[in-house]
Amino acid sequence: MENPYLLLTPGPITTTRTVKEAMQRDWCTWDEDYNSLIQKLRKDLVSLAVSNDAALKEHTAILMQGSGTFAVESVIGSVIPKNGKILVLENGAYGRRILQMTKVLGIASSKLSAKETESFSLDELREHLERDSAITHVAVVHCETTTGIMNDIKGIGEIVKKLGKIYIVDAMSSFGGVPFYVDEIGVDFMISSANKCVQGVPGFGFIIARRDSLEECAGLARSLALDLYDQWKTMEDHSGKWRFTSPTHVVRAFIEAMKELEEEGGIAARYQRYKTNHDKLVAGMESLGFKALLSAEIQSPVITSFLYPDSQGFSFKDFYEFIKAEGYVLYPGKISDVETFRIGNIGEVFENDIEGLLKAVGKHSRFLNFA
Q1: pLDDT tens digits for range 143-176
Q2: Contact 105, 215 (CB under 8 A)
Q3: In a 3-state reduction of DSSP, which class is residue 72?
Q4: CB under 8 Å to 192, separation ≥6 — which residues?
Q5: Which of 3, 57, 95, 203 is most buried, taking the most CB atoms under 10 A from its CB?
Q6: Are the beta carbons of 152 and 309 closer than 8 angstroms?
Q7: Strands 291-292, 303-307: pairing kind
Q8: Distance CA 294, CA 282 (A)
Q9: Residue 228 CB: number of other CB atoms within 10 A?
Q10: Measured between alpha carbons, how far is 162 from 67 in angstroms, rounded to an integer?
């Protein structure tokens, strides 16, 4: 069955026919056939995330049922001791969500905020960490899809590690589509999800962790189901077994997606495709009278925010429905201060798809007579 429209969103994303077809077989969670797939997948994920063989031995992968937020909460709720404190860098909705988790879980926290359209000051970060010696952990969102901003996880990591803190990176919307290595940046816990740049379907998240950092987390979890250490220990000791029922069909689709990522040429090639999509999108939208929210220096290739056009006749709801009828689904804006909408560049999306979208936007723009 053909999709009635293309998802131009930051996840879930449009997947390939072969990824969907991979879900047609049933699997037993206890069977060696399935658990051997899990073990290989865990190794493959670590191989994608690190730069060399030594780092491969120092890192491990844990799979966690649920949406990406479940995986983030499994880390926040499992790695910070009762006398610990986390600094959350916040310049969008997903940084704020991490802060909300700390409050619900009763974890001591502080925040370093920046405007939703700006990156963090590294000098302010250093001063904040030097001023508050109680801070043990630092968390940041790599690609904050509130706007599409790309935060400087390398520069942040240099300061965090120099001052001896545990470093947590929410790479939900970047891993698999933006090149980086966790060992080169000093990340202790990196979190991502099946239905983002690797181009699987929703149903589980995964964490790439330094083994020595993870081994210190036994007994720290504030949740049974989201106990990151116990999930890892079970997978380690029982050859890929999950503690509770795993999303077998989703996992098998993700394994197919991992294969297709390799066939495309790996993360560097996928990044180039996403960047080409983004560049074509921005140039085309600007020619139609729209303006991107962010400057090019801090803009990710994952999702792009556009300001509402200067036209009294513009209604996002009408615009959304018109573009959907043309075969493309967009995303509403999430920024606090100005009216925006967002267009994703990830998933099974290519230049010709962006060209088709731009034609649809052009039809709507001429209808409103503002382009």
Answers
A1: 999 999 999 999 999 999 999 999 999 999 999 9
A2: no
A3: helix
A4: 68, 71, 171, 172, 174, 175, 176, 198, 205, 206, 208
A5: 95
A6: no
A7: antiparallel
A8: 11
A9: 26
A10: 32
